[in-house]
């Protein structure tokens, strides 16, 4: 890229050059040498005449040597074109060819001047680097060059380049190829400067001057100037005319072009940068005096003027035509685009001419293509011109007549950073966010680099959203960007920039195409068609003012810029990239409106932070011309923190400059503002004074207040502040009583802007001014009218009853209710105005002044109470500032407490919150003790933001925060600062590395560094860092006392370097941690040597944990404990591969030196052997030994378990060998702790029993821990815990371990599946030499699990003697497999086998029983039955029957067992799956209802095989029959036959009744057989049933059944039986007569009769029958008969009386 000086050389000549041209004589050839080309060295050797002596020169060559050198010799100055130094005789004659050498470009400069003033017959076209660095091409126009025109040998060498393309022989003459080499064409009147690489390496262009001559005859006459055109270089145009000479003669006209000066060249520029065709002042000094046409006639130079004009027009047109051609052929036209905008109309005219003639020539396609491409250049030129006119000047704050300033003069770079879309928050928070130490925050982004991707970004940036609070400079940044583009300084890849403010777009109604919109806003774009190659940019300013919905989800798709749609649709499609996808989009907005555009459509979010501290100073120095006054203003601003914070806003800087410039340069003694309220009050005073055009030095007492105007303006400000509006319209002003014609009166605080569509729009200069005016309005209304502005909806409040406290409380509440915080600054202003000190300034607006101290206290307390309501962080921080306005500072302590509690760090803070947090922390009166970066966000960015806090804190915890070298470099400042209080710094777990430590050591080495503790664990350090650290802590002024270097690869060499530093007496290190640093015994030896050498060593704590120092290393360390000068108090040697010998060495050393200072010894993770723990424990218990803390357990969980066991169980698990926790309830956390203890090598338990319902996860953790320490445990009982499949598999791993010594393993009811069981059995089979007892009961181990167990039993090495497999879902095949395995292994040690609760099948029991009886088999105990009762029943029956009941299918126990107890035992036996009984007789066994229930329950068991049961002669009770019949009726049970009735008659009756009733009669208590004809047989059978114990009938109705006397006899027997349960008998309507009644009455006499109701109506009973009944009833005093029905009979004379006599005795008896 050419430098600026080179570009100037290309377009204009210096005055020195011009003078030189005028001095020297005309040269026969021009010199086109560029001082940057390769000919700036000594000319190279003449390779063609190399053998010729130096004094011999070649004859003049007809052609120049155009070879370019690129060698280092191209630095010597170019040839002396003036021939000043060379002797006259050495000056070569005129050359027939010119020398048109270009040093870098392709001759892209104007053709050089003809220095000789003579015609040249030949030229030298040598280029030092360009494409003309070859031999010049043949002269195709003049074939015969006379030899006389060939120049003689040159006294100078030919500067041939060895690298360029022309460093070869010149190319062939393709037109005259047949001519001999010696034949040359005559000298051409114009040179041919064709480059072999440029586009002119083809045929030379046509001679436009001799266009009409035939091709063969088109030979121009000798030219006085050479033609050095290259088709690619910038010299591929005709050389410009020489405007310097006087009016040319006719002969001179031919060489007019040669004699033109560069000053008159088309491409030369004047001082303003515009292109000049010639200088009128130099060319025609008298031309400006012409005033009328007559004077022109008398002008002698008019001919020459028009001749020059003609030449200029010709040159311009040729220039444009050449450019048009290059545009169409897509060649480089960059040079042509340098023309300034004052040529736009001329260029457009040239284009119109070209288009006109092209169309006349029928080349419409060329015309269309040219118009499309060239129109872009012209329109761009016009747009840039308009943009410059619009944006060159800026109005600061307010727009006053003549008040604009050049943007470039006043512009100060703003602080713009990469940001994120933030949530809605207060603009005030944004003000505070950027106010502190911006130089320590993110890398700033330059305004002109807004669309430049960062180095790590691959995706190009299309859409940028720039956020910032009102007045921060977003619009000015955009204006600066556009102006730089329009001036051609930056971003020239962008063809067009279209600024479209939302303020003007809002009310654009109807449907339009994008091109319509652009044409309306930018008329210069008419006729343009955007193409992909043209980069276009849209600047949408003020998204927060947008009133369009911007519906990105629902708006229709639009991809055509000519398609008409609503403005909302066009904008959303443009932003999404559907419309003009290559266009760049820049959107500016206040943060609250950022969410209007979804994040996925934004490629970069930036934030304008305003001025940093340096930029603030720069602004004031630029703004205030008096630099002394500027310094005074800067100093005053810095004295007030609140003012200094606000000054990062450019508008506030303007306000401050406006106010302070008047106050500080004046003579009045008024106080300068120190708070925001005072500053804005002063600003309002200044504007009021300015409005009245009075002196700016008036005091507050005589301000000419316009009370009515101020209140009207305040009303406008307040009402729209409540609505969060920033812009107003004419109707808004009228509503508040402000006349449109008088708006200029208020121009000091508000401004107006006229848009294209909206008319005039009004706004305050800045949002803060609106907030202040609104607060002033609120306070004045309250003060003067007792009116609360917040109560505008309640007319009752307007009666003058409001107080200042009520107003302030309402304002506080309103501000807290605002999610966006738009009332925060308003509240601060309002509180500030309530102070009496501030009321002095506005007393002209108030009817009364002064404030009550009680009111002040009340509002302070009210604000403090609001903190109890937990407001958001933003609101809390603003309340802090509110109290500051009230001169109340106690809230600082409350805020500090919230910081300590972490209430402001629960979520990620926004940038505003970060800055506010820094401010609060820095201004807190309470000293900050600990700064923990993890409470916020662990990152470089966060640390940079909070770095000032680090400097004020005593402890900085920056560990594990993903910090990089950027942070380490930044930490140098707080470390080396004189004001730093930092004494502890933790940088552990960050990528510090050696390079980072070198950076950090600059701060650590500072004399100002007060650091006492440094932690840099796990920071990627090596031995190289040890040298730096040793140098740091061995410095005389170093305060470092604690150094942690753990988990760095320091190795022994690194420790040796540290030890060298520790030997120095001035070292203050007390604590040195070198955990996991790859140290061996050699490193230990170095440390011991250093401690011995430095007898004054302060080292009291040494950590060498996790290093492989071994026993040898410990033995070396033990030596230092024998040294009486050793001050070591704590020694950490955990995980150091120390064995029992090491423990012994330490114990011996400590015993030998009773004065040893060691109080704590850490040996966790080592192997103590059998006696190591005991030896050291003895020392701890020894009162003469200082060792009090012995750490042996690896982790805190193990220590917790140890504590729990020692306190709760009263046992020391490290010394005890048995631990039974079956009575303890252990939750998962406790089991986790216990697991950690069991995994520790210091735990040497032999027996562990746990039975507490552990989860599968806990069991897995426990087993995993045992796998880590397997060599001690002998018994493990995990029964009733959810070991599960995973736990069983881990147990298998434990059992496979050759170090495992486990003998007894209890896993009953552990949810182990067959896979888990197989894993355990397989592991035991692989390592069978230890396990003797295995309990897998209660686990489902069927199938593969049992197969693996059987395989284990077959293993001759298996020593298992007890195997419990109860309730394991083992079937007959399993029994057979077990029996087979035991049979196949006579040497099996199995003595006891438990198979209870399984299903043996038909033969399983028999097969195993045979083994028990076999004397050669060791199996002696076979457990099959579930319960002891079942076993007792089995044993009892075996003794009773002399057979094994488990092997029987039929069993008759009639009368052999008695009572329910025996039946219950028998029921349990029946319930067991091993009992195979199918028929069972239990008649006459005295079984009652309980026995029946037990049997029913057993029969319902799926294991019962019983199909037939005999219970005759037993008493079922009330429910016994029902329970058993339910079993019979249920098809899922096997019982099918149930025998209950003793006699056949009863059975017959049962069958008869079942047939009649279709249900079981034995369960009935009431039977109605009325009207059934019952003969004697049926009644007999029924009577037999009624007296059976299984019959439960209580009511029997036999009405109209044709019963006879014989029937009464059967019934009497039933009623007299003790087994009868009848209480009610109805025999009505039967012909019983007196004989039948007499039979019945005999039963009434029986004491067993239970009859309570007897119905004998219509039974033909006579007086005799009545007498019998009466007699029998009287004779049975125990009769329970309560009702006797004799209706329809004939009692005779005495029958009734007799019967009634029985009722008189039994008054309750009812006689009918």
TrEMBL record:
It holds the Pfam family LRR_6. Residues 462-593 form the NACHT domain. Residues 72-93, 135-145, 165-186, 199-216, 234-247, 256-284 have a biased composition (Basic and acidic residues). Residues 32-41, 95-105, 117-134, 155-164, 224-233 have a biased composition (Polar residues). It is found in: Cytoplasm. Its main location: cytoplasm. Residues 60-71 have a biased composition (Low complexity). GO terms for cellular component: cytoplasm. Residues 1-286 are annotated as: Disordered. GO terms for molecular function: ATP binding. Keywords: ATP-binding, Cytoplasm, Leucine-rich repeat, Nucleotide-binding, Repeat. This is NACHT domain-containing protein.
């Amino acid at each position: 890229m050419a430098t600026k000086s080179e570009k100037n050389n290309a377009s204009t000549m210096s005055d020195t050059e011009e003078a030189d041209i005028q001095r020297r004589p005309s040269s026969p050839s021009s010199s086109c040498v560029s001082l940057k080309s390769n000919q700036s060295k000594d000319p190279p050797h003449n390779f063609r005449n190399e053998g010729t002596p130096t004094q011999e020169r070649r004859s003049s060559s007809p052609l120049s040597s155009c070879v370019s050198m690129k060698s280092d010799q191209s630095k010597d100055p170019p040839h002396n074109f003036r021939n000043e130094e060379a002797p006259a005789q050495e000056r070569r004659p005129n050359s027939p060819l010119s020398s048109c050498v270009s040093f870098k470009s392709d001759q892209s400069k104007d053709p050089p001047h003809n220095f000789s003033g003579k015609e040249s017959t030949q030229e030298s076209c040598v280029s030092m680097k360009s494409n003309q660095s070859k031999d010049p091409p043949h002269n195709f126009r003049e074939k015969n060059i006379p030899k006389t025109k060939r120049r003689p040998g040159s006294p100078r060498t030919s500067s041939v380049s060895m690298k360029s393309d022309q460093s070869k022989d010149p190319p062939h003459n393709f037109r005259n190829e047949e001519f001999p080499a010696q034949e040359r064409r005559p000298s051409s009147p114009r040179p041919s400067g064709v480059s072999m690489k440029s586009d002119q390496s083809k045929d030379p262009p046509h001679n436009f001057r001799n266009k009409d001559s035939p091709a063969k005859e088109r030979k121009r006459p000798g030219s006085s100037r050479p033609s050095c055109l290259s088709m690619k270089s910038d010299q591929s145009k005709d050389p410009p005319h020489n405007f310097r000479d006087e009016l040319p003669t006719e002969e001179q006209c031919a060489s007019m072009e040669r004699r033109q000066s560069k000053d008159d060249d088309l491409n030369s520029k004047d001082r303003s940068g515009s292109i000049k065709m010639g200088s009128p002042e130099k060319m025609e000094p008298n031309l400006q005096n012409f005033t009328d046409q007559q004077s022109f006639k008398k002008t002698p130079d008019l001919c020459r003027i028009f001749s020059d004009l003609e030449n200029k027009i010709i040159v311009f047109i040729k220039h444009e035509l050449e450019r048009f051609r290059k545009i169409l052929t897509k060649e480089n036209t960059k040079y042509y685009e340098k023309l300034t905008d004052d040529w736009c109309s001329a260029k457009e005219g040239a284009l119109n001419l070209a288009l006109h003639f092209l169309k006349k020539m029928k080349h419409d396609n060329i015309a269309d293509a040219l118009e499309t491409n060239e129109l872009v250049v012209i329109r761009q030129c016009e747009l840039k011109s308009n943009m410059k006119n619009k944006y060159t000047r800026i109005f600061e704050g307010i727009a006053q007549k003549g008040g604009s300033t050049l943007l470039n003069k006043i512009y100060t770079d703003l602080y713009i950073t990469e940001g994120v879309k933030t949530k809605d928050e207060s603009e005030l928070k944004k003000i505070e966010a950027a106010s502190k130490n911006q130089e320590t925050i993110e890398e700033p982004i330059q305004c002109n680099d807004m669309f430049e991707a960062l180095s790590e970004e691959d995706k190009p940036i299309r859409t940028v959203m720039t956020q910032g609070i009102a007045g921060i400079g977003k619009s000015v940044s955009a204006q600066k960007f556009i102006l730089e583009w329009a001036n051609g300084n930056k971003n020239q890849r962008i063809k067009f920039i279209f600024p479209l403010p939302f303020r003007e777009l809002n009310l654009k109604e109807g449907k339009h195409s994008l091109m319509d919109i652009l044409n309306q806003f930018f008329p210069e774009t008419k006729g343009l068609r955007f193409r992909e190659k043209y980069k276009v940019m849209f600047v949408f300013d003020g998204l927060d003012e947008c009133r369009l919905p911007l519906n990105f989800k629902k708006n229709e798709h639009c991809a055509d810029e000519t398609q008409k749609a609503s403005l909302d649709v066009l904008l959303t499609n443009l932003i999404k990239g559907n419309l003009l996808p290559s266009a760049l989009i820049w959107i500016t907005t206040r943060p609250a409106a950022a969410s209007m555009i979804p994040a996925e459509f934004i490629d970069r979010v930036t934030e304008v932070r305003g001025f940093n501290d340096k930029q603030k100073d720069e602004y004031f120095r630029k703004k205030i011309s008096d630099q002394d006054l500027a310094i005074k203003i800067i100093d005053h601003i810095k004295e007030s923190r609140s003012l200094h914070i606000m000054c990062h806003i450019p508008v506030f800087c303007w306000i401050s400059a406006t106010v302070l410039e008047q106050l500080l340069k004046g003579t009045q003694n008024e106080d300068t503002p120190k708070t925001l309220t005072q500053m804005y009050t002063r600003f309002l005073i200044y504007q009021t004074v300015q409005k009245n055009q009075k002196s700016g030095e008036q005091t507050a007492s005589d301000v000419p207040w316009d009370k009515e105007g101020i209140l009207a303006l305040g009303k406008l400000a307040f009402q729209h502040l409540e609505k969060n509006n920033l812009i107003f319209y004419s109707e808004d002003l009228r509503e508040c009583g402000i006349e449109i014609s008088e708006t200029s009166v208020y121009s000091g605080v508000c401004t107006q802007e006229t848009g294209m569509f909206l008319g005039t729009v009004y706004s305050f200069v800045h949002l803060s001014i609106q907030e202040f005016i609104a607060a002033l309005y609120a306070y004045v209304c309250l003060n003067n009218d007792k009116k609360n502005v917040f109560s505008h909806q309640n007319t009752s409040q307007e009666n003058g009853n409001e107080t200042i406290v009520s107003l302030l409380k309402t304002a506080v509440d309103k501000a807290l209710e605002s999610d966006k915080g738009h009332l925060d600054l308003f509240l601060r202003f309002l509180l500030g105005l309530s102070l009496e000190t501030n009321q002095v300034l506005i007393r002209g607006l108030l009817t009364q002044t002064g404030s009550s101290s009680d009111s002040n206290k009340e509002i302070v307390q009210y604000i403090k109470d609001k903190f109890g309501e937990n407001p958001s962080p933003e609101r809390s921080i603003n309340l802090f500032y509110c109290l500051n306005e009230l001169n109340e500072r106690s809230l600082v302590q409350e805020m500090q407490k919230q910081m300590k509690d972490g209430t402001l760090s629960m979520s990620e803070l926004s940038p505003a919150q970060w800055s506010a947090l820094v401010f609060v922390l820095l201004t807190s009166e309470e000293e900050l003790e600990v700064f923990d970066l993890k409470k916020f966000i662990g990152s470089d960015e966060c640390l940079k933001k909070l770095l000032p806090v680090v400097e004020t804190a005593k402890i900085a915890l920056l560990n594990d925060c993903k910090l990089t070298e950027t942070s380490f470099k930044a930490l140098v400042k707080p470390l080396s600062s004189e004001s730093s209080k930092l004494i502890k710094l933790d940088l552990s777990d960050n990528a510090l590395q050696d390079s980072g430590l070198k950076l950090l050591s600059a701060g650590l080495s500072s004399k100002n560094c007060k650091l006492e503790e440094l932690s840099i664990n796990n920071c990627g350090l090596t031995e190289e860092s040890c040298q730096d650290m040793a140098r740091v802590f061995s410095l005389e002024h170093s305060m470092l006392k604690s150094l942690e270097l753990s988990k760095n690869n320091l190795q022994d060499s690194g420790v040796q370097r540290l030890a060298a530093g520790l030997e120095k007496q001035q070292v203050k290190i007390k604590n040195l941690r070198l955990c996991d640093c790859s140290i061996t015994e050699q490193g230990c030896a170095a440390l011991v040597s250093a401690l011995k050498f430095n007898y004054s060593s302060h080292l009291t704590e040494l950590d060498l944990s996790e290093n492989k120092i071994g026993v040898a290393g410990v033995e070396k360390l033990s030596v230092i404990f024998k040294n009486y000068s050793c001050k070591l108090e704590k020694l950490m040697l955990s995980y150091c591969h120390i064995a029992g010998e090491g423990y012994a060495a330490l114990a011996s050393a400590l015993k030998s030196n009773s004065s040893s200072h060691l109080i704590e010894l850490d040996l966790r993770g080592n192997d103590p052997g059998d006696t190591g723990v005991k030896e050291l424990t003895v020392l701890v218990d020894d009162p003469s030994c200082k060792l009090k803390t012995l750490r042996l357990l690896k982790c805190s969980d193990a220590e917790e378990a140890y504590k729990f066991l020692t306190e709760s169980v009263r046992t020391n698990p490290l010394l005890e060998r048995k631990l039974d926790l079956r009575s303890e309830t252990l939750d998962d956390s406790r089991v986790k702790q216990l697991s950690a203890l069991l995994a520790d090598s210091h735990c040497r338990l032999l027996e562990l029993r746990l039975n507490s319902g552990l989860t599968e996860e806990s069991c897995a953790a426990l087993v995993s821990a045992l796998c880590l320490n397997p060599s001690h445990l002998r018994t493990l009982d995990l029964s009733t815990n959810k070991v599960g499949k995973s736990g069983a598999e881990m147990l298998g791993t434990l059992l496979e371990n050759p170090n495992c010594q486990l003998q007894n393993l209890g896993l009953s009811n552990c949810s182990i599946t067959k896979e888990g069981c197989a894993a355990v059995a397989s592991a035991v089979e692989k390592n069978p030499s230890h396990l003797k007892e295995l309990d897998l009961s209660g686990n489902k181990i069927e199938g593969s699990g049992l197969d693996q167990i059987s395989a284990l039993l077959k293993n001759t090495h298996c020593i298992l003697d007890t195997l419990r497999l109860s309730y394991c879902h083992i079937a007959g095949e399993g029994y057979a497999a077990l029996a087979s395995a035991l049979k196949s292994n006579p040497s099996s040690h199995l003595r006891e086998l438990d198979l209870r609760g399984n299903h043996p099948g038909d033969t399983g029991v028999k097969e195993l029983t045979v083994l028990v009886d076999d004397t050669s088999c060791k199996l002696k105990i076979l457990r099959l039955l579930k319960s002891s009762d079942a076993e007792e029943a089995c044993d009892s029956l075996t003794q009773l029957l002399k057979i094994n009941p488990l092997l029987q299918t039929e069993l008759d126990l009639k009368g052999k067992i008695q009572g329910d107890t025996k039946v219950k035992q028998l029921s349990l036996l029946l319930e067991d799956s091993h009992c195979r009984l199918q028929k069972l007789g239990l008649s006459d066994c005295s079984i009652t209802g309980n026995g029946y229930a037990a049997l029913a329950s057993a029969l319902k068991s799926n294991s019962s095989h019983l199909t037939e049961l005999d219970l005759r002669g037993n008493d079922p009770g009330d429910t016994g029959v029902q329970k058993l019949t339910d079993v019979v009726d249920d098809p899922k049970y096997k019982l099918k036959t149930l025998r209950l009735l003793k006699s056949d008659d009863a059975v017959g009756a049962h069958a008869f009744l079942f047939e009649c009733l279709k249900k079981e009669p034995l369960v009935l208590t009431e039977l109605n057989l009325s009207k059934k004809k019952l003969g004697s047989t049926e009644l007999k059978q029924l009577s037999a049933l009624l007296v059976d114990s299984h019959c439960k009938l209580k009511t029997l109705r036999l009405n109209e059944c044709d019963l006879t006397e014989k029937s009464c006899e059967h019934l009497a027997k039933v009623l007299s039986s003790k087994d009868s349960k009848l209480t009610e008998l109805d025999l009505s309507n039967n012909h019983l007569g007196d004989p039948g009644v007499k039979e019945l009455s005999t039963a009434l006499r029986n004491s067993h009769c239970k009859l309570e109701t007897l119905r004998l109506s219509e039974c033909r009973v006579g007086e005799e029958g009545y007498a019998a009944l009466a007699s029998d009833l009287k004779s049975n005093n125990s009769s329970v008969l309560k009702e006797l029905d004799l209706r329809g009979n004939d009692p005779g004379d005495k029958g009734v009386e007799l019967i009634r006599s029985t009722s008189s005795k039994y008054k309750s008896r009812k006689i009918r």
